[in-house]
User: Which sequence fits this backbone?
């Protein structure tokens, strides 16, 4: 009998401890209000930063450091994350009882390092579909050094940034140094279009030196048609993976500019003015706290988050002098405008100017591991050829 009672007591204690841990983990706290015990619910705020070790201010009060979880009473808080040498991150967050909110800050240095990545000169750089390589031409050197080059922006170990470019064609046969480059949808090859005396087109493989490039001028239409079909099939496949209501939403209202790298968000221009219906019911608990915009206007630029069924306005419009593209982490956008390079969160918050020096046109490409940005610049010296440089983001 005693053994049974003891077993029951142990079981009750274990169940009580488990329940207490669950209640604590979900934000419930026991306090004493006017001498009486009071069990009240709180919310959880998880704070992270890159780089880590940043200070977290809650309503201007230094509260903790990043990579920590804070219990807060339900309400709206101004959360600021700051680290010396970096631009601050700031956002208003709504804390709800029993809900985990996240403050994930990507911090950018106030004095980024500018470093040369090519010293032969560079023309017309083009990003490949995988967003990990840039093709460009060189025209300021000898015949052997002139031609087409590939800059590899993967995270593989490299001795120096200078060694990350490889030549795939020279000028011994044709004028590749002045070619216009176009990538194949799979990145395995590219077309070099040359308008010297008459337009000629050559197919170049991208992973090795092209000793005898293939002249595809006569069959160019067939090659580009096959490439267009590959692109269309991929877009169709991406659309078919979406729920039917999302497909209808996109088809009726969106002019797609670019999918995020992880294919969970859409950068788009509204093709018509409309009110977006709510697709996910009931709504997701603990989503991005930034207020969304369901009423869209034709011509304005938005981000639609497919997973959370939330929509954010980015800009009233965009013209050919500007460029908006995804950052590799699928959580940020690069916005090139007015001779400045900004990075902002996908909901339009925390827009930070990371570079305001000289660069040419909209030749701005993010490095694959988000550690830097590649630009084309002559550093404002019109007497020198433009080269590729990196802007450090760490």
Assistant:
């Amino acid at each position: 009998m005693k053994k049974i009672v003891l077993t029951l007591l142990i079981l009750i204690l274990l169940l009580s401890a488990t329940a207490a841990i669950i209640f604590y983990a979900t934000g419930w706290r026991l306090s004493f209000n006017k001498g009486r015990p009071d069990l009240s619910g709180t919310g959880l705020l998880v704070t992270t930063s890159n780089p880590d070790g940043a200070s977290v201010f809650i309503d201007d009060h230094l509260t903790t450091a990043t990579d920590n979880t804070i219990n807060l009473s339900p309400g709206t808080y101004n959360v600021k994350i700051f680290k010396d040498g970096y631009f601050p991150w700031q956002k208003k967050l709504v804390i709800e009882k029993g809900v985990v909110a996240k403050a994930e800050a990507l911090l950018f240095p106030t004095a980024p390092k500018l470093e040369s990545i090519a010293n032969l000169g560079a023309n017309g750089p083009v990003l490949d579909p995988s967003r990990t390589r840039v093709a460009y031409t060189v025209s300021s050197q000898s015949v052997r050094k002139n031609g087409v080059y590939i800059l590899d922006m993967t995270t593989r170990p490299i001795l120096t940034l200078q060694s990350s470019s490889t030549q795939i064609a020279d000028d011994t046969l044709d004028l590749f140094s002045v070619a216009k480059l176009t990538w194949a949808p799979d990145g395995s090859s590219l077309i070099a279009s040359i308008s010297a005396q008459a337009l000629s087109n050559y197919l170049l493989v991208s992973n090795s030196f092209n000793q005898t490039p293939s002249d595809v001028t006569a069959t160019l239409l067939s090659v580009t048609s096959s490439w267009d079909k590959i692109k269309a099939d991929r877009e169709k496949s991406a659309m078919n993976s979406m729920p039917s209501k999302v497909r209808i939403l996109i088809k009726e209202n969106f002019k797609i500019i670019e999918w995020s790298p992880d294919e969970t968000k859409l950068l788009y221009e509204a093709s018509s003015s409309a009110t977006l219906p709510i697709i996910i019911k009931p709504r997701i608990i603990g989503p991005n706290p930034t207020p969304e915009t369901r009423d869209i206007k034709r011509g304005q630029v938005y981000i639609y988050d497919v997973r959370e069924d939330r929509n954010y306005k980015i800009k009233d419009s965009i013209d050919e002098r500007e460029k908006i593209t995804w950052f590799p982490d699928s959580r940020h956008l690069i916005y090139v405008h007015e001779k400045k390079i900004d990075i902002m969160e996908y909901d339009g918050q925390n827009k930070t100017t990371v570079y305001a020096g000289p660069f040419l046109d909209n030749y701005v490409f993010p490095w694959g591991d988000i550690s830097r940005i590649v630009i084309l610049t002559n550093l404002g010296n019109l007497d020198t050829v433009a080269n590729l440089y990196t802007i450090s983001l760490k």
Observations:
- The CA atoms of residues 20 and 169 lie 68 Å apart.
- The helical segments are 2-25, 220-240, 244-253.
- The first helix runs from residue 2 to 25.
